[in-house]
Specification:
The chain has 181 residues and is an alpha/beta fold. It is built from seven helices and five strands; from the N terminus they run ααββαβαβααβα. It binds zinc ion.
Length: 181
């Protein structure tokens, strides 16, 4: 009897953890567009805090869409504090260095090679952006020509999914109408 209970118990644990894993893993294509747009609006709201470099970002829970952390470009404080890095830092300070695969980062602009590499190192489930690097460049902001997709494909371990063009019109307007000194 005891042996039978132990077997049932083990099966239960195995099934529960498998199910949880399957649900938790971010899958960008299964997230409704409306939810992508809601998260991008939160990133746009963050971008409004920097009129010259309107890079805003949020990290959400992939399953619920709840915003877990926010960031905005703070390169006036520190040259590497791009919006995505600020957001990563805020996430870690609040939740610790864990559960990355359950999260998705939304950013108004396509991540530069530094930020895309950092995001890949976190093991984040997905990255969603509004404006392309081409638009960012045409707004007069210094940029690398290497795309986020090229950086993603250049690693031999990334499982990060990428999606561009969410609320692209709104994000493009942020960059094209940015404050120029
Ligand atoms: Zn960057």
């Amino acid at each position: 009897m005891k042996r039978r209970q132990a077997l049932i118990c083990l099966c239960g644990i195995g099934f529960a953890s498998l199910t949880r894993g399957a649900l938790a893993k971010a899958n960008l294509s299964s997230i409704p567009i409306k939810r992508h747009e809601t998260a991008m609006r939160a990133a746009i709201a963050m971008a409004a805090q920097n009129a010259a470099y309107p890079f805003g970002a949020v990290i959400t829970n992939a399953n619920s869409g709840v915003v877990l952390a926010k960031g905005v470009n703070k390169t006036f404080e520190n040259p590497v504090l791009h919006g995505e890095i600020s957001c990563i830092n805020q996430y870690v300070s609040q939740y610790g260095n864990k559960n990355w695969s359950d999260t998705v980062l939304y950013t108004t602009g396509e991540p530069c090679p530094m930020c895309m590499s950092a995001l890949i190192w976190t093991g984040i489930g997905g990255v969603v952006f509004g404006s392309s690097i081409a638009v960012i460049k045409s707004s007069g902001i210094d940029a690398f020509t290497l795309s986020a997709d090229e950086v993603n494909k250049a690693s031999n371990f990334s499982q990060t999914q990428l999606l561009g063009g969410i609320l692209e019109t709104e994000c493009n307007a942020l960059f094209m109408n940015r404050k120029r000194s």
